[in-house]
Amino acid sequence: MANEVTLPAAIAGIGTDLIHIHRIRQAYERFGERFVARILGPQEREKFLRRQARDPERGLRFLATRFAAKEAFSKAIGLGMRSPMAWSRMQTLNAPSGQPLVVLASPLKDWYESRFGPAHISITDESDLAMAFAMVERKPV
């Protein structure tokens, strides 16, 4: 219909997180690869290792932004860090354009898709801070 109006998707949840990068550095220095394996999903871990090899500071910033993204996302979906949410089940990867994308693994993926529509994430870092903002849409009816 020519006069039909499309309304914007309803927001189901939002979440944000702000973290001092030096806190991530301390955890990484204390726990090393165990910390990375606990926090990052498989594709994130690959990207972290490549960045860290080129520039250790850039690797830490990557780790901090991904940590913040997981915190923000967990708040947006209302779970916090309770099952089925787990650090490594939510990844922030990038589209070819550079846009950050939420990629989920089961069982979180199945739980999420039964309740919500698309998820959106934005990440940034500056000086000693990393920040993420997440927004999830309501499931289309």
Automatic annotation (TrEMBL):
Residue ranges that the Swiss-Prot or TrEMBL entry lists as coiled coil:
none
The reaction(s) this protein catalyses: apo-[ACP] + CoA = holo-[ACP] + adenosine 3',5'-bisphosphate + H(+)
What is the protein name given in its UniProt record? Holo-[acyl-carrier-protein] synthase
UniProt cross-references to InterPro entries, sorted A to Z: 4-PPantetheinyl_Trfase_dom (IPR008278), 4-PPantetheinyl_Trfase_dom_sf (IPR037143), ACPS (IPR002582), Ppantetheine-prot_Trfase_dom (IPR004568)
Q: What is its EC number?
A: 2.7.8.7
Recorded GO CC terms:
cytoplasm
What is the annotated localization of this protein?
Cytoplasm
Signal sequence segment: none
**UniProt organism field:** Advenella mimigardefordensis (strain DSM 17166 / LMG 22922 / DPN7)
Residues bound to Mg(2+) are: D17, E71
- Primary gene name: acpS
Entry keyword tRNA processing = no
The entry's function note states: Transfers the 4'-phosphopantetheine moiety from coenzyme A to a Ser of acyl-carrier-protein.
Gene Ontology biological process terms in this record: fatty acid biosynthetic process
- Kindly give the Pfam families that the UniProt entry links to this protein: ACPS
Q: Mention one GO molecular function.
A: magnesium ion binding
Q: Which cofactor does it need?
A: Mg(2+)
UniProt KW keywords: Cytoplasm, Fatty acid biosynthesis, Fatty acid metabolism, Lipid biosynthesis, Lipid metabolism, Magnesium, Metal-binding, Transferase
Similarity section: Belongs to the P-Pant transferase superfamily. AcpS family.
Q: Where is the 4'-phosphopantetheinyl transferase domain?
A: 13-113
